[in-house]
Amino acid sequence: MASIGQKVDTAIQLLLQGKLVAIPTETVYGLAANALNEKAVLAIFETKQRPSFDPLIMHLSGIDAVEKYANWNDARLKKLATAFWPGPLTILLPKKEIVPDIVCSGLTQVALRVPNHPLTLQLLKALPFPLAAPSANPFGYISPTSAQHVNQQLGDKIPFILDGGECGVGLESTIVGVEGDELVLYRLGGLTVETIEALVGKISLRLNQSSNPLAPGQLKSHYAPRKPLFMGSFKENANNFPNKKMALIAFGKIEINNSHCSIYNLSEKADLNEAALNLFKLLRLADESDADVLLAEYLPKQGLGLAINDRLQRAAEK
Ligand code: TXA
Ligand code: MG
Fold this sequence. Notes:
This protein is α/β, with parallel strands linked by helices. The chain folds into 2 domains: about 5-205, DHBP synthase; about 230-315, Threonylcarbamoyl-AMP synthase, C-terminal domain (Rossmann fold), CATH 3.40.50.11030. It has 10 helices and 15 strands. A hairpin with a 6-residue loop joins strand 2 and strand 3. Helix 1 (about 10-15) crosses helix 5.
């Protein structure tokens, strides 16, 4: 198993040697390597069993580092990065030569983000290179929001997990780019549509096209638990499984008394931030429980509710 610790120095030494290290961020844990070292980046793909057509986000120490790796092509993206970095925002920009093709899966744009976690910021500032890091889960499985989650699934494949506690946001970053003059959102995440639009105006949503060459990682079956998951009203869904053990991913006050159903409540007080924090953890617990099927009800279709519904929907579309 990997060793787990809080020593940034250990992470620095391993990353300098081209090894992989799992790192905490405010969104989810990442599986990091030197983004400028092709061999190290290849090891990320192998360890996650991630298809090579699915590009990686490059993590930077600060906004000043952007110009080394990409060209700013839109004032709105710069405004967003200035306002929300470090934070759960990833922007797509035309890449410079120095970024290896393997990081971007051969695309002309690179995904950049400054994560908001004190240990990882310290790490990024100490390293002479940026970190390529996808979420630290086997490809297609639920993203990890604690060092223990990473250890359970990738612990035997990596030397070290930098333990920064539980992730504060719990959902991956929101991915934004431009197409012509149009500002486009490719992945709903920890930064809400409303917050983005309040700063830079209208943004078009272009989610979930598994055939979309711009965001090939937006495959439908992402975030999937191993057990089947069904979305919709509990009352309607429960009737379909009269003899099964059910686990309900719920939100807010619920009054369900069904001896075949255990409840995993994302937030009893119906708080979307709390629900985001709990989503991946509870999905894992439900998946590991003795339930035969998982059921989930839609959350309010606003703010982080949109991103949470999106994750649940993808988990259901296995
Ligand atoms: O919050 C996050 O973004 C976390 C933490 C670790 O930073 N990372 C994360 O990485 O969620 P990953 O690899 O699980 O998801 C990155 C997404 C993928 O859907 C990928 O296709 C997309 O970003 N992406 C990366 N580079 C891209 C590029 N050059 N063009 C289009 N999409 C890109
Ligand atoms: Mg991922």
